[in-house]
Amino acid sequence: MANIQRSRADQAGSVVRYAVLVVGAILFLLPFYLLVRNGLSTEQDITSPDWKFFPSSLQWGNIVDLFNDPLVPIGRSLLNSLVISVVQTAGVLVISGLAGYGLARIPFRYANAVFYFIVATLLIPAAVTFVPSFVLVSSLGWVSTLRGLIVPGLFQAFATFLFRQYFLNFPRELEEAAQLDGTAYWGTFWRIVVPNSTGFIAAIGTITFIGSWNAFLWPLVIAPDQSAWTVQIALSTFLTAQTINLPQLFVAAGIAILPLGVMFVFLQRWIVEGVERSGISE
User: Fold this and answer.
1) Which pLDDT does position 279 carry in this prediction?
2) Which of 58, 105, 148, 215 could form a disulfide with 137 if both were Cys (CB 3.0 to 4.6 A apart)?
3) pTM assigned to the model
4) Helices (H) and strands (E) in the chain — how many of each?
5) Alpha-helical segments (H) within 128-156
6) pLDDT tens per residue, range 202-217
7) Distance of CA 9 to the CA centre of its chain
8) Could you tell me which of 200, 223, 217 has the C-alpha nearest to residue 272?
């Protein structure tokens, strides 16, 4: 009798868990449904009080109209965002990774002072640095150029902090084995540490890529010309004080999140593997 009651309790618990998961999945997918539904609708379908799950006539021409819009170079903006995000992500992984490893492993007198200074910069709001950064970039002639958008973001204090904390817990035995073979810090980092930290590096790369892709304020300040617009600046042009182009706004937003979705699907195995193994290969 006790076994029957326990079995029923387990079944009830499973039903509750699955119900919670289904509700969570629906809430998670709801914004994506709205992007697709409204992006393939007319203005009247979106604003109509009579809601339909999908409009009777899907407006696939909204996608063509988006890329043919002469006022909003969405194709060029997507390319700019992709270049900026890829280069900044690679730069952060290399520069912040080396900085974090140096602070964690290479003994020198002012290591803690440098680390505390880097952490202190995290307390400064990014908007405060926009004016001096703009003056510096402008003096170099980098306004409305990819260099002006990329270079200031090649080093990130938060990524350096995370790398340093991670490398402090990295097993010294692996590094000592390489150093006994005569490998210096540089070789140890690239041959031992990096191959055994792919999961953590993928996680930092994912966060950095998403941050670069979604950046808005700095591109808005430094890239007034259409040739240097990012996808976030292009999206903002659909919301003006005079008109709001809802169908193209939803289509553009849906297209803008596709690279992030593809990147996450591609890297999720590495991220999960890194968490499971704590960054150490077997």
Assistant:
1) 41
2) 148
3) 0.84
4) 14, 0
5) 130-139, 146-150
6) 888 888 998 999 999 8
7) 42
8) 200
